[in-house]
């Protein structure tokens, strides 16, 4: 590996030191400050030097990927924070305003906090979520930050110190007990933040007990990560890079499948040589890299970008997995692509790639009832409809059963859709209502997200 700049993080306090920032007008820097007081902001030396095309900034999609944009706040919220900063208001006053704005941005979409917390012998298991039968999500406490923050991230509240969102666990023993008690769980997904921010030693503290427990039902260990794009040196030159790769090999040696759920939003992220080398190094351990990304206005709402991304991923030995719809939280209004348009983009890109790239599913909404895929737009008995199915369901019986919604060009989320053919509700709604009633947080039950 040729020498490279060491990891350096930039946030609100030091982003003006980034040499390339000097090229940008003061208004852009002020926007970053205003929006960065409400939504999390962090970028790093690799993103700055090897991903962003500074000649295209501030419109460059990879600039938009980590730098806050004015449009991410509604104009009244922008005006409020901008006004406070301009009049030199006290930091505590800005914070109160920022917290009030955050609370109105649906910080806990899809029932993450209220509906998905598993229990063991009646005790809630903090730092875990269990929504779909086969897969438990585990949030290791040292993995709850990232090498940089994506401007659109749906986990944004946990990066702005919203304390009530305590998705963090050190309790791998409890995870092992839970897996013993729930033999239908086959997958544990380590997520965050980005678990690959952790040292090899910390990673091993979670992985080794899982492997040592010799759980026959546990077949797949997954890691959700954006490190291949945001800091590929994690697998190349970091001082414990070799240990990380050796740990990955131990998972395969223990007879488990290690699935790296890699997050790439734009084909340019796959171009730098260190990214390609990191992908190769991870694959050589026996891990399989699957790729996923939301579809995002201002970043990747163009079918040519997706077909290039999927083609390149297949070339590099990765498996395209999901195209998501931007979630209904945070700056969704800025990044959202309407569902009908999302389907058109997906379809156009899907048609262009080899069958090897068509392992991808999308566009897919991680909504409260499940992962709902828009299969397409059709016409039946003279009515224009949208056809959807669940890829995952809160009730496994919902999976792969098509349902039909009235055609709606503006809809950006499942909750915007209404049943077609004069129906009054979708087949899953009654059971979902019942589920809400049985769960404590009744205030979340008015609508499904
Ligand atoms: C997406 C998701 C999973 C994993 O779903 P797969 O389709 O198996 O990749 C698990 N749990 C939750 C809560 C999810 O949103
Ligand atoms: S890397 Fe993942 S968790 Fe971290 S900011 Fe980006 S999308 Fe969010």
Can you put this structure into words, describing what you see?
The protein has about 450 residues and is an alpha/beta fold. The protein has a domain of about 100 residues. The chain contains 14 helices and 15 strands. The chain has an 11-stranded mixed β-sheet. The chain has a two-stranded antiparallel sheet with strand order 1-2. Strands 3-4 form a two-stranded antiparallel ribbon. The longest helix is centred in the last third of the chain and has 14 residues. The N and C termini lie far apart (about 45 Å). The C terminus is likely disordered. Pyridoxal-5'-phosphate binds next to strand 5, strand 6 and strand 14.
Task: Output the keywords.
alpha/beta, 11-stranded mixed β-sheet, single chain, 15 strands, binds pyridoxal-5'-phosphate, globular
Give the overall shape, derived from the CA principal axes: globular
Average pLDDT level: 94
Helices, by number, come to 14
Q: Which cofactor or ligand species appear?
A: pyridoxal-5'-phosphate, iron/sulfur cluster
Number of strands: 15
Main sheet specs: 11 strands, mixed
Strand content: 15-25%
Cα(first) to Cα(last) distance is: 46 Å
Strand arrangement across the biggest beta sheet: 5-6-7-8-9-10-11-12-13-14-15
What structural class do you assign from the helix and strand content? Answer: alpha/beta
Radius of gyration: 22 Å
Order of helices and strands: EHEHHHHEEEEHEHEHHEHEHEHHEEEEH
Poorly predicted parts: 442-447
Question: Which percent range fits the helix content?
Answer: 25-40%
């Amino acid at each position: 590996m040729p020498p490279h700049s060491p990891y350096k993080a930039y946030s609100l306090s030091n982003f003006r030191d980034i040499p390339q920032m000097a090229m940008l007008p003061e208004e852009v820097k002020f926007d970053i400050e205003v929006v960065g007081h409400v939504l999390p902001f962090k970028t790093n030396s690799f993103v700055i030097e090897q991903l962003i095309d500074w000649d295209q900034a501030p419109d460059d999609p990879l600039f938009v990927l980590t730098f806050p944009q004015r449009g991410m706040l509604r104009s009244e919220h922008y005006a409020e924070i901008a006004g406070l900063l301009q009049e030199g208001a006290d930091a505590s006053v800005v914070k109160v305003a920022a917290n009030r704005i955050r609370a109105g941005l649906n910080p806990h979409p899809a029932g993450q906090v209220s509906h998905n917390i598993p229990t063991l012998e009646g005790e809630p298991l903090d730092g875990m979520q269990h929504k779909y039968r086969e897969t438990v999500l585990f949030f290791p406490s040292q993995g709850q930050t990232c090498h940089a923050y994506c401007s659109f991230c749906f986990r944004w509240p946990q990066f702005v110190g919203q304390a009530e969102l305590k998705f963090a666990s050190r309790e791998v023993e409890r995870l092992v007990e839970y897996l013993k008690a729930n033999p239908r769980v086959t997958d544990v997904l380590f997520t965050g933040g980005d678990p690959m921010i952790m040292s090899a030693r910390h990673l091993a503290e979670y992985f080794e007990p899982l492997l040592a427990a010799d759980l026959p039902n546990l077949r797949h260990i997954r890691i959700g990560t954006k490190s291949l794009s945001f800091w590929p040196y994690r697998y190349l030159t970091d001082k414990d890079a070799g240990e990380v790769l050796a740990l990955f090999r131990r998972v395969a040696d223990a007879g488990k499948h290690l699935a790296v759920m890699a997050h790439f939003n734009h084909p340019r992220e796959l171009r730098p040589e260190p990214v390609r080398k990191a992908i190769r190094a991870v694959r050589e351990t026996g891990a399989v890299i699957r790729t996923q990304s939301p579809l995002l206005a201002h970043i990747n709402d163009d079918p040519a970008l997706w077909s290039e991304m999927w083609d390149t991923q297949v070339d590099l030995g990765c498996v395209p997995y999901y195209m998501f719809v931007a979630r209904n939280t945070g700056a969704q209004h800025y990044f959202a692509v309407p569902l009908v348009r999302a389907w058109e983009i997906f379809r156009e890109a899907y048609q262009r790639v080899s069958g090897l790239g068509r392992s991808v599913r999308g566009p897919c909404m991680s909504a409260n009832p499940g992962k709902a895929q828009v299969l397409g737009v059709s016409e039946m008995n003279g009515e224009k409809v949208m056809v959807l199915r669940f890829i995952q369901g809160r009730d496994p019986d919902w999976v792969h059963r098509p349902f039909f919604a009235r055609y709606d060009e503006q809809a950006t989320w499942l909750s915007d859709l209404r049943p077609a053919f004069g129906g009054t509700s979708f087949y899953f709604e009654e059971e979902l209502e019942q589920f809400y009633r049985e769960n404590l947080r009744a205030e979340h039950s008015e609508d499904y997200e």
